[in-house]
Inverse folding.
């Protein structure tokens, strides 16, 4: 009897434990499904903190133009002979750049073992969604060691000297001051005039043959224009963006000069005077620059040898002026 009672107790205990596991599994699945479906989404509208731009203020009035000074007397310029150009020294050897070291390794620690989940209780009332917490930025990993520097490469041979570039003719220099006039000497007494006897005219000799023409010398190295130099200026009619008929010759001159000097690059500057912020004036200046640009292209100047921008002297900028400058193409 004691053995039978113990066996029946074990069976009853096993049945109860199985029903408990079954109820726990069903309630767990249904609860998880309802949590996924009933999770509310945040519908708070996004509010921008940047206000609308204010209206643009009016431009101030232009000041009165000052009086033009009197033109000085033209001077006489004395241009000295151009000296010989010295040879350029070879460029130094550039040192090698060290190799970048490998990036450091980021090691992620292993996750701990997940504990056993207990039985899920009945679902309570849904609470309000809390505010989002602050983000925590992880620490930066250690930097890897720098790799060793590679050996220095062999230095290349020095390149040959380029062709000679003839620069544009510079402006005439100012004339120097006039010297002090010397004292006028006394007039000498008139001497006795004696009429001489004219000799007979000799026989003209034969003209000798012309000598041979010497050989043309070797072309020298090309000069380097290391900054923008003013070459030609175009003036436009008021509120117009078309070239004057008299300026067509300037376009041909620029194209021919650049063809003879392939190392040069042209810069087109149509900058407005300082303080001129009128959008209409800036748009008109841009169209005038485009006019000169297209004229040079049509005259045969390649597009890669033309730049547009503010290259000239800002004090010479005028609303109706477009300047073409030259420099060595780097």
């Amino acid at each position: 009897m004691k053995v039978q009672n113990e066996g029946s107790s074990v069976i009853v205990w096993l049945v109860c434990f199985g029903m408990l596991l079954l109820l726990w599994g069903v309630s767990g699945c249904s609860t998880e499904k309802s949590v996924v479906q009933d999770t509310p989404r945040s519908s708070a509208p996004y509010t921008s903190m940047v206000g609308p731009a204010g209206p643009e203020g009016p431009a101030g009035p232009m000041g009165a133009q000052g009086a033009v000074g009197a033109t000085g007397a033209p001077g006489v310029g004395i241009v000295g002979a151009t000296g010989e150009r010295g040879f350029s020294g070879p460029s130094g050897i550039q040192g090698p750049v060290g190799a970048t070291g490998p990036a450091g390794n980021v090691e992620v620690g292993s996750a701990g073992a997940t504990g056993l989940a207990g039985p899920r209780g009945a679902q309570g009332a849904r609470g309000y969604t809390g505010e989002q917490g602050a983000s925590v930025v992880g620490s930066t990993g250690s930097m890897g060691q720098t790799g060793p520097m590679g050996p220095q490469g062999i230095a290349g041979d020095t390149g040959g000297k380029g062709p000679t570039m003839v620069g544009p003719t510079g402006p005439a220099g100012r004339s120097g001051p006039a010297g002090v006039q010397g004292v006028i000497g006394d007039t000498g007494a008139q001497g006795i005039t004696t009429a001489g006897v004219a000799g007979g005219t000799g026989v003209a000799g034969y003209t000798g043959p012309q000598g041979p023409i010497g050989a043309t010398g070797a072309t020298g190295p090309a000069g380097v224009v290391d900054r923008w130099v003013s070459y030609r200026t175009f003036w436009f009619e008021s509120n117009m963006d078309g070239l004057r008929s008299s300026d067509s010759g300037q376009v041909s001159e620029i194209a021919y000069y650049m063809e003879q000097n392939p190392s040069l690059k042209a810069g087109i500057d149509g900058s407005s005077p300082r303080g001129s912020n009128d959008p209409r004036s800036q748009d008109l200046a841009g169209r005038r620059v485009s006019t000169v640009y297209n004229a040079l292209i049509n005259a045969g100047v390649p597009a890669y040898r033309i730049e547009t921008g503010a290259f000239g002297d800002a004090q010479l900028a005028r609303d109706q002026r477009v300047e073409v400058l030259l420099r060595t193409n780097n």
